[in-house]
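Request:
Um, any thoughts?
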Amino acid sequence: MGSLVVGGLVFLCLSMATSIGLILRARLPNHHLNAESKDVIRLATAVVGTLSALALGLLIASAKSTYDNAEVEMRTAAARVLLLDRVMAQYGPETDKARQLLRELIAKRLSRGWTAETTDEPSAKALGEYQDIEAVQADLRSLAPKDAAQRSLQARALEVSGMVAETHWLLVESGKEGLPWAFLAVLVCWLALLFATFGLQAPTNPTVLSILLVCALSVAGAIFLISDMANPYVGLVHVSDAPLQSAIERLGKP
């Protein structure tokens, strides 16, 4: 589900909860909303509000951690690709085919996007990304080193190519993690309860209603950011592919 859709649904849910509170306020007997009743409602709301704030803070911290890790992984992947290309260049012209395959792999990654499905999906003219890196490794294994220096470079190239392949499979395995939806559903229920009590106590004038709608929009915006950052390779808030763009300009050079 898209992050904008999630944020929109949360906004609608909170708006409806506020409306329910306003409707109940108009229909409840006066003694249900006297000063003592409102004090109890505020105390109960404080408990739920504290729980909601803690849960929202945990989700924000988790999403930010996921985003930061993805950013580090992007820079690390670009550095490993450049290192692999330079090691193969030092080996000699025998690795020209493998270097070209590596460049094509990065170009394909940049054109296809960053989801696990697109990186593994074969097309009529292109293999899945994992098959590309395996082709590079196959070329490296087929090399016949002439001396100790080339044997060392071959071993190093195979080691780094294994790291590049590992990065791909980590993306595949973590690609569908996203948000803990059960946790998010409970949080939205708590927030809906809060906004219902706001409506229950709020006088029905344009200023109060506007403030409640702005608050609902703000909370929905926070949920949107959490959802978007929990999927760091897609969406409006996504990890920049600048490191790989920079890397592809250097690939294949002598």
